Amino acid sequence: MARPCLLAAGFAWLAGSLAGAVEMPTALEAGPFLTGLRPDRITISWQTKEPTTGRVECRFGRQRRLADSPAPARLHQVTLAGLPPATECSYRLFVGHAATPFWRFRTAPDGPAPVRFAVYGDSRSNPEKHARVAQAIAAHDPAFVVHTGDFVSDGRVRAQWVAQFFVPAAELLRGCPILPAMGTHEKHSPVFYDYFAPPRELLWAERLRGAPPAAFPTAGWTAWRFGSLDFLVLNSYASVKPGDPQLVWLEQALAECRGTWRIVVAHEPFFSSGKHGGSEKLREALLPLLLERGVDLVFAGHDHTYERTVPFADGDDSSAPPLVQIVTGGGGASLYKVQPGPWAAHASSTLNFCIVGVEDDALVVSAYDDASRPLDCAVLTKANGRRDFGEAVPVAALEFLAAAKRFKSFSFPHPGAEPKSKEFSFSAANPYAHEMVGELSWEDAEGNGWALEPPSQTVRVAPRGKATVRFTARFDPTAAGAALAAAPQAVLRAAGRSVAVPAFAIEAPPRPRKPEPPPPPPEPTDPFDLEEEEEE
Ligand SMILES: [Fe+2]
Question: How far does residue 149's CA lie from ligand 1's centre (Å)?
Fold first, then answer.
């Protein structure tokens, strides 16, 4: 990859024949796209079909900057430094001997300022749908766009990055810097880092400042500040066990947050009502830390849905800071069905993106579909540092309810014509460091021949412990109104929320025995034989 070379002077190359050229260079294959947005700099990248040299011309006010990518290469990355903060800049590329039109970007503010940004993810596999979503996002003119991962079907295949990501989102990416999170389909590919890693000189600058190796963004996780927003972007491929570099980095990065809003971006969600569901492993490893350190908002993808959770907090103490998680995985990939879980404030199966407006102590998340029709809206506010996100649910209750998906259906033997009962038991494991408490009860268990004992019971599972839950089911087919198919529904309840768990699976009725073959018909009697017998 060609690396940047910022020129303070030397406009001669530009003068004359190239000035004023506005045709899109045919050699351009992907980009330009913008990364590394800071108050004083930005990185502009592009890819050509054949190796070539390149140059960026940037204008702001009455000033002009040039930066070269002098070595023939296909992927070019040029950093413009020394820019003024919160300033609209225009730029164009020179690719070979052709120039692009001018496009615009805006540098980051150097302090708190109102901002509007976009979030979306899972843009893979269907370029036409991705193009619709990207164009709808561009119409909102966001300051930057956060991508929650799964850019393409297979992140190791460069051609897919062009066809599935850069070309469909070209208009958006020319003027809207991107903050990318690694998804599962990126497969930890070096291609992700080729496109999105910060320029090498920034890495060297961080090393010279004594940053620990774990802080280097080449690991796929990164911290980024924009005005009053602190973003912490996680790498779904990197482990988060105690002592692992990503967790060490995250603890350090959270301690260094100074902004009003703390926003975590992680491809895999903690809670989700889509096909994949939430990650119990991530809940166990990260949620206590994020809640303790006052993270306000988590953006995720992975499930191709839109979903916003209710606010949840560590414990039911009203002073515990709540957190809201949003899954926005509708950037083009085939949609998944949703079955709203007990954590869901809004869940839908549709292409989608989020526009987030931040002004002073208010943060407004608006979700839209691919035609920019509103889907959902949530307002989070802070007054004197105290959050008003709405009533929060204890996270332990949601974790208890999330365990419902582990239940297998209870297999009840077909009773035939006789009453039948069966004892059941299942073990409830608690992987978390806090107690899980909830209730198991039964619905629709009266007047239809079914009886469940006990009809409800408290389930209490010690931290990192296990509990065995037992109950007995009985069905009497001779009872009035007996209906085998109306098997009672098991329900878990906690903190005023409930979720159904699989009901009984009734075993197939016993196979009817093969009927005894009828006795063979008597031999036809022969009157003559009879006569003979009689004669004997
Ligand atoms: Fe994924």
Answer: 7
